[in-house]
Task: inverse folding
């Protein structure tokens, strides 16, 4: 290992320890989701302690829909590496379904994540197929187990998050969602995550079922409007925001473009970040 490679490995290990420590300390923390290097730099400048990528936000930024196969694994890791290199913060990645159905694909995706400089990542149990959107239970558990096994071979504490995707795919079955999360915890996942949880009762039920493992909850989805303090009181450890920051940014863009196109006015610029302010954030 060359001196530069040794330094990079040491820096990655330090980031991994910081991410692990965030999950082990008291209280909750927010892990926002940048979609590119620029948004990562801005979030770091605002004082956030860790970042997580968003597959949907990245897909939108390169003009593609958020759907299975729209973004390749190589493209995903190129974007993740750009985000890693943009700041000194630990970064966890949205690794989708591991970019393959079989457990071996999940294992290889975790290895590739480590090579991209990431110190955490999530594997979901959504297949990407309309006719069978969620993997069968045993296969889903085997996939998480393979990802965990590979993560444990890395020379730093990679934080592996296992996602139960029922609620995002029309399977409003909390009992099965909890059953899956419990099995993923038993398989060794470090963090459990069921995107789509909205009510305090459902969130509390998930937190209780997998305790003491930390739970991630996503905010920014329609119908989910709990505050940081409310989520912390429910026992949530980590709060992410998925593609909502990217969608908020595009929402402002579309409103401004609509004003230009429909009204022929340019008042949107009054609410824009001043050039000097945002330029200074990137320079800093």
Result:
């Amino acid at each position: 290992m060359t001196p530069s490679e040794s330094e990079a490995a040491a820096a990655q290990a330090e980031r991994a320890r910081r991410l692990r420590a965030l999950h082990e300390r008291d209280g909750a923390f927010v892990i926002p989701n940048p979609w590119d290097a620029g948004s990562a730099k801005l979030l770091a400048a605002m004082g956030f302690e860790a970042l997580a990528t968003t597959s949907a936000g990245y897909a939108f930024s390169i003009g593609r829909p958020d759907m299975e196969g729209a973004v390749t694994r190589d493209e995903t890791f190129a974007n993740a590496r750009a985000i890693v290199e943009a700041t000194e913060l630990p970064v966890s990645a949205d690794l989708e379904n591991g970019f393959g159905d079989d457990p071996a694909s999940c294992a290889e995706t975790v290895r590739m994540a480590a090579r991209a400089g990431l110190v955490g990542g999530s594997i979901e149990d959504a297949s990407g197929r309309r006719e069978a959107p969620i993997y069968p239970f045993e296969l889903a558990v085997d996939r998480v187990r393979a990802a965990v096994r590979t993560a444990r071979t890395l020379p730093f504490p990679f934080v592996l998050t296992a996602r139960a995707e029922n609620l995002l795919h029309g399977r409003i079955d909390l009992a099965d969602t909890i059953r899956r999360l419990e099995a993923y915890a038993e398989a060794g996942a470090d963090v459990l995550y069921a995107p789509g949880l909205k009510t305090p009762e459902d969130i509390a039920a998930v937190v209780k079922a997998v305790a003491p493992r930390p739970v991630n909850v996503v905010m920014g989805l329609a119908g989910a409007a709990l505050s940081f303090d409310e989520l912390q009181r429910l026992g949530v450890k980590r709060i992410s925001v998925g593609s909502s920051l990217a969608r908020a940014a595009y929402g402002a863009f579309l409103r401004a473009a609509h004003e230009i196109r429909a009204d022929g006015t340019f008042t949107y610029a009054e609410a824009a970040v001043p050039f000097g302010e945002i330029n200074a954030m990137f320079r800093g």
